[in-house]
Every structure is written in C-alpha cells, then in structure tokens.
Design brief:
Helix content is 41%, strand content 17%. By secondary structure, it is α/β, with parallel strands linked by helices. The longest helix has 22 residues.
C-alpha cells in the first residue's frame, strides 16, 4: 500500500514539474510589418542564440503596418505583443503618442546615430530602405526614363501605365507625409491631386507595383528598394532610379524597433530588441536585400545598388510624422470617394 502511494505521489510530482516547465518556457511575441521572408532568418537566429521562442505575427501587404497598428490599438487594455518591429517609422511614432509603447534604451544601439532614435527611448531606427522609380527597360529606353518624382505627372506618359501603391498605408503614406513636410501641405496635396487627375494606376502594395512593371503593364512604378532589388536579382529587365538626386532627394525609411507597453514578456522583449539592433542583424539585413541604407557602417555589401550614393530628403523623422493626420485625411478624401 505504501509503495503504491509512493509511486502515485511520484507520478503527480513529475506531472507538476513537467507542466511548470511548459509554463516557464521563455517566449516573446513580435508583431512585424517587415516582409516575412526577410524577418524569419533574423527570428530564427535569435531563437538559436538565446533559446527564446519567438511567436511572430505578420501583416498583409495590402495593409502593411497600418493593420498591425490598428491591432495594437485594439489590444491596448490587454496587450498581446511584446515587440513592434516595423518596416517604417510614422506608425511607430503614432503608437508612442497613443501611449502604447514603453521606453527602452538598448545597449546594442549605442553606435546608432541620435537622428535614428527617439530622445525618450520609445523607439530606435535602423536598417533603412529608400523609395525608387522602377522602370520597365523595354518600355522606356534610357533617354526617356524619369529622374524625378514629378516625372510621374508628365502628360506624355499615359496615366494608366504609371503606378504606385494606394497612399493610405505603408511606405507610400509615409512618402506622402514626407512630401507635405518638404514641399508644404498645399503643394504636397496638389501633387496627389494631379496623380488622381492623371489617372495613375493605384495598386494594393509596393510588391504589386513592382510586379506590374516587371510584367510590362506599367512603364514606371514607385516602390521601395527591397521590392526593386528582388526583381533585379531575378533578371526581370527593370531599372531602379533614385529620384530627385539633383534636388530634394528621395525618402530613406528606417525600420523601427519598440517595446510594447504592458506586454506579457518584457524581459524577453528587451532581449529581442537588443538582438534586432545589433550590428550582426543589420549586416544580415543588408546582405538579404532588405536594407540599403544601414544606420552605421557595416561589413556586408548590398546585393543591389552597390555603387549608389543616395541623396536622402533633408528631413527629421518627427517633421514627417507631424504631417501624418492631415495626410491621412487628404488621402482618404482623394482616393476613397
């Protein structure tokens, strides 16, 4: 009887310990608006190095970043995420204003310039991309190719053969806010009014714009360097042009990393941010084609645009963000009617 009782207690004890181990498994929840095939190698390497399991949630191309932000806002009273890894920055600044982020100054970011950091520590920028005009080589020979964003408004080009993503979300929305900041709200809005008047083709996302150029359905498309690079690597017969290099420059868009306020795994969240902001990861993102403009010197060579010296728009990230509410209102009025 005593032996049976002993073995019964032993089984119960083993079960309790096993359940405890499952509950104590280290994990971190990451909401990412970065393309999954670029983010997954980073996440996998973090798990290998730390033993921390990453539960990643990705956004869809059509609502890139904006959809993820809406989800974080909806979960404010009961946060599910620990880290927000964004492929751009204005929506991250919006989350700060809504009280959804908590400060964290990562030791990995010591050598990242102050212009890439929130002064209060709510977010850190890294691994920049840039906006480019992607041209179909067969449709436009070298002498006819655009050199400026304003060439999209050239009446000699059929509007139906020039395209961009809807300026309601993602980097196209961020680019619109940058134009408002650089040109002034009146001229910024006029640019998009002309786009509508010209009947430019609007696509669900930057990758779709790229594909339409590759297929020859568009002569010119406004997209991001990572999407353009993917097409160039495939030998798709396209050329990427950095616009306005003799004038205002093109928009350079850093990724951002931020710790979500009240997330379920804050310690693991900080560990993930430390890894994400490391020089190791920035090298990895450059080598993968996701990043063209790193926040600091790296050893990896970009897979595309190796000899390109890019002139960016002379704007602070906060300047661009300040125009977001007006831009969102104007773009909805122009393109959702």
């Amino acid at each position: 009887m005593r032996a049976s009782l002993f073995f019964l207690m032993l089984i119960v004890l083993i079960s309790v310990v096993a359940c405890s181990d499952v509950r104590q498994e280290k994990a971190v929840v990451v909401y990412a608006s970065v393309d999954q095939h670029y983010a997954e190698p980073v996440i996998r390497k973090f798990s290998q190095q730390t033993g921390i399991k990453v539960l990643a949630v990705y956004d869809v191309e059509a609502a890139k970043t904006t959809g993820m932000v809406n989800r974080l806002v909806a979960e404010k009273s009961r946060p599910q995420a620990d880290v927000f890894w964004s492929g751009e920055f204005v929506q991250t600044l919006l989350l700060k204003d809504k009280g959804l982020l908590t400060p964290y100054i990562s030791p990995s970011a010591q050598d990242i310039p102050a212009t890439f950091k929130d002064p209060e520590g709510y977010w850190t920028g890294f691994a920049g991309r840039a906006r480019v005009l992607l041209v179909n080589n067969r449709g436009l020979p070298p002498g006819q190719r655009p050199v400026s964003l304003f060439d999209l408004l050239d009446s000699t080009l059929p509007g139906s053969q020039v395209g961009l993503a809807y300026p309601l979300f993602g980097t196209t929305l961020t680019h619109a806010a940058a134009l408002y900041a650089y040109l002034g709200p009146q001229q910024g809005k006029a640019f998009f009014e002309h786009i509508k008047e010209r009947g430019l083709r609007l696509a669900e996302g930057n990758a779709t714009v790229r594909d339409l150029v590759v297929q020859g359905q568009l002569l010119i498309g406004l997209t991001d360097t990572d999407d353009a690079c993917a097409a160039i690597q495939r030998g798709a017969g396209v050329t990427a042009i950095f616009p306005d290099q003799e004038g205002m420059g093109t928009l350079i868009i850093p990724n951002t990393a931020a710790l979500v306020a009240g997330g379920p795994h804050p310690q693991e969240g900080r560990a993930f941010i430390d890894f994400l902001l490391s020089i190791e990861v920035e090298n990895l993102l450059v080598a993968s084609g996701w990043c063209l403009a790193p926040s600091r010197p790296v050893t990896a060579e970009p897979v595309c645009f190796k000899d390109s010296a890019i002139k960016g728009m002379d704007l602070h990230l906060e300047q661009i963000y300040q125009h977001l509410p007006q831009v969102q209102q104007d773009m909805r009025e122009l393109f959702l009617r």
